[in-house]
Design a protein that fits this description.
This protein has a domain of about 45 residues. β1 and β2 form a beta hairpin. With about 70 residues, the chain is α+β, with helices and mostly antiparallel strands. The radius of gyration is 23 Å and the shape is elongated. A two-stranded antiparallel sheet has the order 1-2. The chain contains two helices and two strands. The structure holds zinc ion. Zinc ion binds next to α2.
């Protein structure tokens, strides 16, 4: 019985996808796919800009700069 260890990676091909957010076409290159595959991540469904925008949103924590108005004690 042949025990063939297949350490080969799938043959990814560069493809054009449509962004889920802005419906713009973006390119997912084979090297990018390989990157996501190796990291065990899902392939992106958004274009680069939308991904960066979302990332930026996630990083910028909305600091509660609530301005307490006049605090007049009785
Ligand atoms: Zn987009």
């Amino acid at each position: 019985m042949e025990n063939k260890l297949t350490s080969e990676t799938p043959n990814f091909r560069t493809q054009i996808l449509q962004c889920k957010d802005c419906q713009a076409d973006f390119i997912l290159t084979d090297s990018e796919m390989l990157y996501y595959y190796r990291k065990n991540l899902n392939f992106p469904v958004r274009c680069r800009e939308c991904r960066q925008a979302r990332r930026a949103q996630g990083l910028t924590t909305a600091e509660g700069s609530v301005q307490g108005g006049d605090c007049h004690g009785s």
